[in-house]
Amino acid sequence: MNLVLQCITSKYVDFSTRASRKEFWLFFLFYLVAYSILVTIDFSMGWTWHFATGQGILSGIFALATLLPYLAVAIRRLHDTNRVGWWLLIGLIPLVGLIWLIVLWCLKSDEAENRFG
Fold this sequence. Notes:
Blueprint: H1 2-8, H2 21-45, E1 49-50, E2 55-56, H3 57-65, H4 67-80, H5 96-106
Antiparallel strand pairs: 1-2
Helix pairs in contact: 2-3, 2-4
């Protein structure tokens, strides 16, 4: 939990260092659980859910508030495998790009010092 709190507080927009697999996947799990809970609350309340867009107010605010920490931890995870953050854009390729990005996030860390620390 401490790693997740660091991602949200002290490493909020830190795009230059490295993030371990544990740090990245714990943050991703936190994001997924919190977003799912907020979507459920939005949908059950009714008045905070916009049916035309399929987005709720609470979940939308949470998604915007955690966009930069998510991008930062994803890029730092790529740095840990000795890749530049621009590899994140490969996720824009339908299906294949997302699968390749998940593979990159699951790769073992570069044990030695690399250009990112």
